[in-house]
Amino acid sequence: MAAGSDDVGMKHSRSEHIFQAVFDQVIEISLRWKLYLQLFDSGTDNVDLLNASGSLVFGLLQRLMLYDIALAIARLTDPEASGQGKYRNENASLRSLISQVRADFTDSDSEEVEKLLGRLDMCVKQIRLHRNKAQAHADLQLSVQGLPGIAYDDLESAITTIQELMIITGRAAGHNIFHFDVIFPYGTDGRKLLETLRVAQRAQKEMSDEVRVSKSKATVQDGEPRKMS
């Protein structure tokens, strides 16, 4: 029996809801990753500047940003649902979205999606292990034995692959997505922070130089010979 218009409308509405939920997550990951790159992967001069401006603060910020991005990737790569029976909960994940729009893939889309999912699974294996055993929970055995770190290349490759998958699934869902190059409002991004810190560092240096010159002059004056009366 053919599906009625109400059924089709409900399916479209559900697909659109899942698409928007997943799309928003991908945008957020792209934004945070770009900020991270601007601050911590834009040259040794900038890293030196951050360390000179507050190494403890920016070191903690760097770790928190990486953990946050890793957690977001782990959520996006969750299965369609978690739990079983009455405890089964659907996830707003990539696989859930792909399941909704799979019927609208072309043959080449389907082939590309499967290839990308295979690559993504490889990239996120360690990321998901960290989420499940160290970040969302504290596994005692791994706390004692230690857990290998998350590779930078895995994070970068996972984000790129997620973006590629989102472009294909978005097209199947009726959305034309061309890229995920986030554009920040002027004066609000990592570059602006670095520029502000650099200006402050120069001002501090100039002030220190002025104080040093002033002290030097005072020392010379104090040591000048005095005329005997």
Automatic annotation (TrEMBL):
Domain HEPN AbiU2-like per the UniProt entry, residue ranges: 18-173
Where is the region Disordered? Answer: 205-229
- Quote the protein name from its UniProt record: HEPN AbiU2-like domain-containing protein
Which species is this record about?
Methylocystis hirsuta
Q: What is the lineage of its organism?
A: Bacteria, Pseudomonadati, Pseudomonadota, Alphaproteobacteria, Hyphomicrobiales
